[in-house]
Amino acid sequence: MRALLLTRIWRWADIRGLPPCPNAPRSFRAVVLLAVLAVLNAFDLAFTHSQLARGNFAEANNIAAAMAMGATGMIAYKTVLFGLGASILYRFRRRWESEAGLWLLTVAYSGLMIWWLIYLPTAELCLGDPAASAPRVSY
What is the rounded distance in angstroms from the CA atom of residue 67 to the CA atom of residue 82? Predict the structure, then answer.
């Protein structure tokens, strides 16, 4: 009796008999893209915070600028916003719309990282130029 019960449970719980999930590759790509977006978002937060502290950068997002009174406000804002968006995209990770949105966000954040890589050396060059940073002298 016990062996029969265990056999029935084993057959009922046998995952080898289930058909393969057709959306498994899409789900894997979505999770990888979410991880890439988390890293890019962390770099964006670090770059933004470093430039806000120097005073040569203005936050374009009005809500983020209002929260940027300190580092904790900006970190909380970006973390909550990214967390909500990531949880929605993770919930629907098996749908093509979610994957398309993740690809679009990855391209946008990659473009933002390219912008940061161009902006930072240019800002250093401009701030190091004595003509741009020295007091005006009348002739």
Answer: 15
**68-125 confidence digits (pLDDT tens):** 666 788 888 889 999 999 999 888 888 888 889 999 999 999 999 999 899 888 877 7
Annotate 22-42 with three-state secondary structure: CCHHHHHHHHHHHHHHHHHHH
Taking the C-alpha atoms of residue 102 and residue 29, their distance in angstroms, rounded to an integer, is 9
Instruction: Name the band, by pLDDT with cuts 50, 70 and 90, for residue 35.
Output: very high
Who's near 94: CB < 8 A, 6+ residues apart? Answer: 23, 26, 27, 30
> Which bin fits 138, alpha (ψ -120 to 50), beta or left (φ > 0)?
beta
- DSSP code string of 40-102: HHHHHHHHHHHHHHHT----S-HHHHHHTTSHHHHHHHHHHHHHHHHHHHHHTTTSHHHHHHH
